[in-house]
Design goal:
This protein is an alpha/beta fold and 259 residues long. The chain has a single domain, classed as Rossmann fold, CATH 3.40.50.10320. The chain is built from seven helices and eight strands; from the N terminus they run E-E-H-E-H-E-H-E-H-H-E-E-H-H-E. Helix 1 links the parallel strand 2 and strand 3. Helix 1 packs across helix 6, helix 2 packs antiparallel against helix 6 and helix 3 crosses helix 4.
Length: 259
């Protein structure tokens, strides 16, 4: 596990939780690297199995009008190389169109299916609430990804009568312990992970997505600044870099059964 620095209100105590599998759902290739690559690098180094599910192909991304016919292939290649840099090999795709993602039952069912297959301790996804302080966090696909995954996590994943064809195919209902959000409104963030030792790995992973960065040096300055600001908000020593999350206990000692 990475070293966790948490605010007093954080529901997640890393010293008491055993994390073996994490499943990450994001809207586009590169979202996970901006949001959580440092934490993921620390998890995989500690032996945690991390899987990605990229919900769209990122086919509307980039800035170069040349070579648009292979943008989907290019972005998949970038995500695969970026994932490898932080120790992730297992990548799934839903192949929705970039800009068209919606929390439909077709999408939610695919999310439920994958969660029941992998049975992770943590599902990590994008926040379904719009961030008015930095609207770039709230691309409509980001919001849709967060909403679809949240609807899947509760109640569908743990309800044996939701999408009954999945149970009939042998995918039993599953009670997920934790739901972690990236791209959260700052007021919602309640958990910080010290990633000072993973900053280079995170930036290396982000740089791989070169098709999305017209100014790589500028991007790096912004990301470094944001991680330092997170460390300051977490009350860490000056110069500490952190990633910030909104962590929700889905099934734990404080929750009750029922739909």
């Amino acid at each position: 596990m990475p070293t966790d620095i948490t605010s007093a209100k954080s529901p997640f105590d890393a010293s008491m939780e055993r994390v073996e599998r994490v499943l990450c759902f994001t809207a586009h290739p590169d979202d996970i690297d901006f949001g959580a690559a440092g934490t993921i690098a620390a998890w995989t180094a500690a032996g945690v199995e991390v899987s990605y599910c990229i919900m769209t192909d990122g086919d509307a991304g980039g800035f170069d009008p040349v070579g648009r016919e292979r943008i989907t292939e290019l972005r998949a290649e970038e995500q695969q190389r970026a994932a490898a840099l932080v120790g992730v090999k297992d990548i799934h795709y839903l192949h929705e169109h970039d800009g068209y993602l919606e929390p439909t039952h077709g999408v939610i069912k695919q999310v439920v299916k994958l969660i029941r297959e992998i049975r992770p301790d943590i599902v990590l996804t994008m926040h379904p609430e719009r961030n008015w302080d930095r609207l770039q966090k709230s691309h409509p696909d980001h919001l849709a990804a967060g909403e679809a995954v949240t609807r899947a996590v509760y109640p569908a994943v743990e309800n044996p009568f939701a999408y009954p064809e999945l149970a009939e195919a042998g995918l039993a209902a599953y009670k997920l312990p934790w739901l972690w959000f990236i791209s959260s409104p700052e007021a919602r963030e309640n958990h910080f992970v010290d990633v000072s030792e993973q900053v280079d790995a995170k930036l290396d992973a982000i740089r791989v997505h070169a098709s999305q960065h017209p100014d790589i040096d500028g991007m790096e300055r912004v990301v470094r600044s944001m991680m330092l600001a997170n460390g300051e908000r977490a009350g860490l020593p000056a110069g500490t870099s952190a990633e910030a999350f909104h962590v929700v206990s889905v099934n734990g000692s404080s929750t009750i059964a029922g739909f």
